[in-house]
Amino acid sequence: MNRLAGKVAMVTGAGRGIGAAIALAFAREGAAVALAELDIDTANATAERIRSEVSGARVIAVPTDVTQSAQVKQAVEHIEASIGPLDVLVNNAGINVFCDPLTMTDDDWRRCFAVDLDGVWNGCRAVLPGMVGRGRGSIVNIASTHAFKIIPGCFPYPVAKHGVIGLTRALGIEYAPNHVRVNAIAPGYIETQLTLDWWNAQPDPKAARQATLDLQPMKRIGQPEEVAMTAVFLASDEAPFINASCITVDGGRSALYHD
């Protein structure tokens, strides 16, 4: 339970879902954790939950809009002044933007990239100077199986997620000599509130859920905690030679040729 003992981590979009699960898993493994979140109420609630479940947890919530580079930089400065220099950054904040390419507005395109790609770069750019200066660090970007598999009707989300993989690889190679590792995780179907909301929005939620489960080789979808433990591994000293890589967490779905 001390795989991250002594480390300081920042997790964006940590108020709920995968981000909240990562923050909790990090705290359980001994890290001091900053929850950087646009919806500060959800971040405060998750921080309180972590304190109640993890004795002695060092956790703070910081209001952060990842689309604003200056605000992300300020958040990093506040975190480092409050709980110490950052060893780990998890760029988890993201949104789903699914449009028809020919009817999509410029605002739809910009909104998708502002959060799903620019937000990742803003986080990396804010922490890299300190990590490079200290000669250590691990950045974990939450991508998606949309980064290498295309589902019709989901444009431009997969374009942004392809960009996240490119950013991960480029920065991982750029800063490898400085002992800063940059990796990604590509979750498939994960049972977050967004997934539940999508099922519940369908005419027959039960049938929609079953149809999703039927597509999965393991006949279930993933849990946020299963993504979180992959993030723990990449953030820890157990993965010192994993860099510029992407770990897929999808129960084998993306390896399936056809249904």
Sum up the structure in keywords.
259 residues; 46% helix; Rossmann fold; SDR_fam; 9 helices; seven-stranded parallel beta sheet; alpha/beta; two-stranded antiparallel ribbon
Question: Please, could you describe this protein's structure?
Answer:
It is a single chain. By secondary structure, the protein is an alpha/beta fold. It has a single domain (8-190, 223-252), classed as Rossmann fold, CATH 3.40.50. Helices cover 46% and strands 16% of the residues. The protein has nine helices and nine strands. It has helices at 17-28, 40-53, 69-83, 106-116, 118-134, 157-174, 193-201, 205-215, 224-235, and strands at 8-12, 32-37, 59-63, 88-91, 98-99, 137-142, 155-156, 180-187, 246-249. A seven-stranded parallel β-sheet has the order 3-2-1-4-6-8-9, with helices on both faces. Strand 1, helix 1 (17-28) and strand 2 (32-37) form a beta-alpha-beta unit. Helix 1 (17-28) packs parallel to helix 2, helix 1 (17-28) crosses helix 9 and helix 7 packs across helix 8 (205-215). It is globular, with a radius of gyration of 18 Å. The chain starts with 7 loop residues before the first strand and ends in a 10-residue tail after the last strand. The mean pLDDT is 97.
